[in-house]
Amino acid sequence: MMRPVKKIIMALAGSGGLVLAVGCGGGADPAAPAPTPTASKATSSKPTVSPTPVELARANIGQQVQAALKKRGTYRMTITWQYEQDENLTATVKFTGAGEDFSLSGADGSVIGVGGQYFYKDGPLSSKAKWTKYDPKAKGHQAVTTNGLIVLYRKLVQSPRLLDGAPYSSQFAVSPGPYVGEVLTTRYVMLIDLRKAAADNKVYGPFLSAKEAEAQKTLPLSALLDSNGLLRELNYGTGENAFSIRFDNFGTKAVITPPAKQQLTK
Q1: What ranges does the record give for the region Disordered, renumbered to this chain (predicted)?
Q2: Domains, the chain
Q3: Phi, psi of 6 (to 5 degrees)
Q4: pLDDT tens-digit readout, 40-78
């Protein structure tokens, strides 16, 4: 069922301003373990055996994961939000020289980001709704709804960068992971101290203010990586504000273009 756009924003914003669109749960127990990757239909019943992982540690996992994704050039994300389990978001991400372009589609809304410009429309990419271009100077209804969703969806696409906070994790554990599809994985579990991460502007930059970090305190996170250091699954957050993201279609050709002028709202 499609829910009002404003309701989505309020639900997400209620999770504490989100760390890269992350609902951490302000009352989370600092000692609580990170969420374990959720089983899916794509997970094989074969024995849980981990491959020989690339050399990853607390200090470099974020950089190494980002480098592995960039090497492949493109990938797909399937995002499940615990609050809205029956409606997945699907994003295609393509690295460019200046950053990353993406198209994200969901039942409630879609966002395209190309060359630093962002566009939103209600409904999936296939809907006939008009696109609205992101306007940082917008006020009133557009500032709350359209701009709010563009920012939140963009942060979801950038979720892999949450691993940049690993150096500030109070817990960092490595263990054999499950199969993701037919791919063997290694599980990395951490509990990131958001206050320390926020103090280092190079980690989360503008996505996490000191005020938000103080409210959230910690972020439980777990990642499943294959033997090449490719991110296969990312889980973070708690309760209704937990997210689970699957990564696949690495290196698949992707063409992401902005909406035509006639498809934009006036």
Answers
A1: 29-52
A2: 5-26+52-263 (2.50.20.20)
A3: -60, -35
A4: 444 444 544 445 456 789 999 999 999 999 999 999 999
